[in-house]
Recover the amino acids of this structure.
């Protein structure tokens, strides 16, 4: 006859204590890691915004006769990327029809609900690993908007001269809107990015 034997109360309590100690040690470091990633993404997007805002001012002043983005002399995405390349340092570029080397396995668009999309854009990788995608609309001279402003989801981006998609950590995950992917809209006179208001 077999005797069934269960765990004693002491064994169960010791096991729960060990699990509690391990959780107490690992969970704070995981939370800290997530917070650091978010802070790093926020710092990178601010730096990238400043970089492209300054470059846009230079282009408006130095590369056009009307001093607007409406007549920069470009006809496609690759041209506008190279124009910005005069004022922003790239370590790598990929044309809109050959993106694989810059995306490095990351999806051009993470899912259907995300608004930041690298599909069809000319790509460049900055020295800090930030991935940037350029989309140029040469009909932007017809828009009445000169500076586009939006809250994360760029609803007015179709009215802009240039849409610049940014992934703050390149091909690394999570590749999600407002986590590591953002977008700038550049109107005739410049670029405007406004962070979304904090949730209540």
């Amino acid at each position: 006859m077999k005797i069934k034997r269960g765990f004693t109360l002491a064994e169960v309590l010791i096991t729960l204590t060990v699990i509690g100690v391990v959780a107490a040690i690992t969970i704070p470091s995981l939370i800290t890691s997530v917070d650091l990633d978010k802070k790093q993404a926020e710092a990178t997007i601010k730096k990238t915004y400043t970089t492209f805002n300054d470059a846009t001012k230079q282009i408006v002043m130095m590369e056009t006769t009307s001093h607007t983005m409406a007549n920069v002399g470009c006809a496609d995405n690759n041209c506008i990327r190279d124009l910005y390349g005069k004022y922003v340092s790239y370590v790598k570029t990929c044309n809109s029809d050959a993106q694989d080397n810059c995306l490095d396995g990351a999806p051009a668009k993470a899912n259907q609900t995300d608004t930041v999309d690298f599909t069809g854009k000319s790509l460049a990788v900055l020295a800090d690993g930030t991935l940037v995608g350029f989309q140029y609309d040469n009909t932007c001279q017809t828009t009445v908007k000169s500076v586009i402003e939006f809250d994360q989801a760029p609803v007015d981006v179709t009215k802009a001269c240039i849409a610049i998609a940014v992934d703050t950590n390149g091909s690394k995950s999570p590749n999600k809107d407002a986590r590591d992917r953002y977008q700038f809209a550049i109107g005739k006179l410049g670029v405007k990015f406004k962070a979304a208001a904090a949730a209540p």
